[in-house]
Amino acid sequence: MVTIKELTELDRSKFSDAAGGWAAVSNRGSAAMDRVNNEMIAKLQATQQGYTDEAARKSLARLSSNFQYIHAECGLIRTALSGLASELEGPQRKLKEALADAAALKFTVEANGAVKYPATVPYAPNLSGAQPKGVPFAASADPNEGKARAIANRIVAALSEANEIDGRYARALAKLKTDATLKKPNWADVARDTKEIQSAAGKYLKESDIPKGKSPKENAAWWGRLSQAQREEYISVHPASIGALDGLPATARDEANRLVLAEARGSAEQQLRDLDRGPKPKYEHHINPITGLPLQGKGSKRLEWENKKKYLQDQLAGIKQIQNRFDQTGEGGLPKAYLLGFDVKGFGRAIVANGNPDTAEHTAVYVPGTTARLSNAENDMEKALALWRQSNAMPGNPSVSTVTWIGYSAPQTARPFEGGHIIPEASSLSYADKAAPQLSKFLDGVRTAQGGPHASHLTVVGHSYGTTAIGDASVNGGGLGADDIVAVASPGMLVKHADELDAPKGHVWSEAASWTKDQVPAGGKIVRLGGDNELTPWLSPLNPLSQNVPSDRVFGANIMQTDSDDHGGYWKSDSVSLWNQAAVVTGNYDSVKRD
């Protein structure tokens, strides 16, 4: 229990100084992790190959993870100590004020909080007139008694508040301990520790103060008002909320989302271990009504168990694919990767940048289409990587960042009967409608973090259904603010002409293989993902001629040559298709090979 003496004499600066010490350790851990990733591993990737070098890279990766663990745990301790010092200021001030008031009245405050006061005259005259003979003066309450009682109550309240604060933080800090026998960081434990500090420091570092539903400019303004210490504490204690804020610097979002990713990995691994160690629901046996022989089938509990396991395995697959991209830094000159968004809910989301978009001269945001999901992130990240390599090699030594935006719930089936779906999900506009505001806000956030619409040349590149999401964002979601739009194998962008899209006139580009190699543009017309043209009133809605898509010359886009042999071949190394995209991304319009 906190006593009057302890609270009065408490030097809160000792907590603040200790917090500063833990902050220094946390920041050194973060800096060391960056050095390992971007200097040691990157240089090793760029210069060495072989079994020995692979073993060295694995060792360095473990070292990087250890430093990140130090950064995370020390950051939590730092925030707890800062919160404790900050919150104790209130009850300490209240106690000192109560003691000062007692001293001014010449009251005595004892160690247990009791307040002694000098007695005043026990009786007071009847001010209404002469007192009747034989009747004593009317007794009145001692005014000092009430004052003493009020001061005592203030002392009790201050001590109670201090004890509640002390207990809350003490319980949380007591749980921040690591098993010394661990051979690698326990990220599931970090996630639990984070929740403990979120709860303990909830009054100090309010999650409700983090903007929700605000514009990227409002998010950036809030971030700009914080001190560096506050920013570091928010990243440490509320990484998921900070990592999701459009408009914040890429470095801040990356730091926060890497913590979220590490904790998600630890959680998924722990849940999988628990599933495998626990009882596995058995298959249910049924009798075939015709043959009378037993049939083995999956009961609902077995299906639930298998589905949960598959869901966790998919999470880990996507997380490992993102980690592989982190580990590729330096390989072939690849720049650092920035994790601008991450979430495991549903099919999962991942937004990964090659190079810092905040400082790049040219930024390309790639929006994938059908089957985009966390567990398939590698496929889409490879496309953005191929675009970075080609763009980086363009004339003029351009500074380029390419971003894979798996930031929406994409349709997962493209062909009838695929995955048991009679109607393909990719024929529905609902996915694009939901993606539109998310994409618009992300692009606005990129522009905000860059410093405005003219700070970088921004190109939005879409593939397949991703172009439909881009078109929806352009006309319904809030706009794109793009300098160029590249539509690759587009099934339609919801408009009949390129001039209706949110890009300067003449800056919409299209490439698509012939319909014998890629049927998606024609299929998009049939399911009406394009825009109605002037022939529509005289044609059946199911007639492909009633719709315009970007690969139609009448659509008005710049038609580029392509040498893709199928729907996914537009990012092959040294291909004309990839060259043309890179030429647009870097503003080398005269180098585009037009069709």
Automatic annotation (TrEMBL):
Highest taxon listed in the record's lineage: Bacteria
Annotated ranges, domain DUF1023: 345-512
Family annotation (InterPro entries): DUF1023
Protein name stated in the entry: DUF1023 domain-containing protein
